[in-house]
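Hey, quick one: can you model this chain's 3D structure?
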Amino acid sequence: MSLCLPGDEIPLNGLQPGIGVALDSDSGRAFATTAGVLRSDDEVRVENLRKRYVPRKGDCVVGIVMGRTADFYKVEIRAPSPAFLPTLSWNGATKRNRPVLEIGTLVYARIEAAHPDLDTELTCIDPDTKKSWSTGEVLLGELKGGLSFEVALSAAQRLLDVDCFILDRLGKDFAYELCVGQNGRVWLSAPTARETVLLLQAIKRSFGMTNVQIEAMVGKMVEVFS
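Sure thing. Here's the predicted structure for all 226 residues.
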């Protein structure tokens, strides 16, 4: 096991940089962007060792509504303290036309502001679309139905990888929606409750498995539904 710190140069050895590794386009050298364990398999990545999530501006998180006032929602994001989500921080929201979230509702939000001495601010405004929250077609917002579960921050990083083997493999045979928060909370929804539970279990079991073992596990799942 090799530990590294932010700024440490990382040898790629012909592999692609993954999460936690940044490539300097001018020099072609790679550097760690976070402290953690260096892993090399299909890519080179740094798995964060933090057990408690520390909010960072720009992160996308899955939170749980804990309370509400006229102006904001109080949201639990697996951080040392709750965050707040303004009630108008949604695409196209107005005082007369805005989401009404109940206690316990799951939301997929982006961290708008994070400071050690101030409350973390969330937003569900997606700058990449002009669609209103009311269409249900905006990336950020309320997560309806499905199930949520928590994983280690390092496991969340692996699920967020563009080439995550378990998610790619499941997607070949199963239809599902997935939101992975950088805070280690994951939301999953499939066409039936049974599929949702089995897919959730498969993802949780995949951590520590090789790609060959994952392939065998998913193959058995396909047989169950065939």
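One thing worth noting: The helical segments are 153-159, 165-173, 193-206, 211-225.
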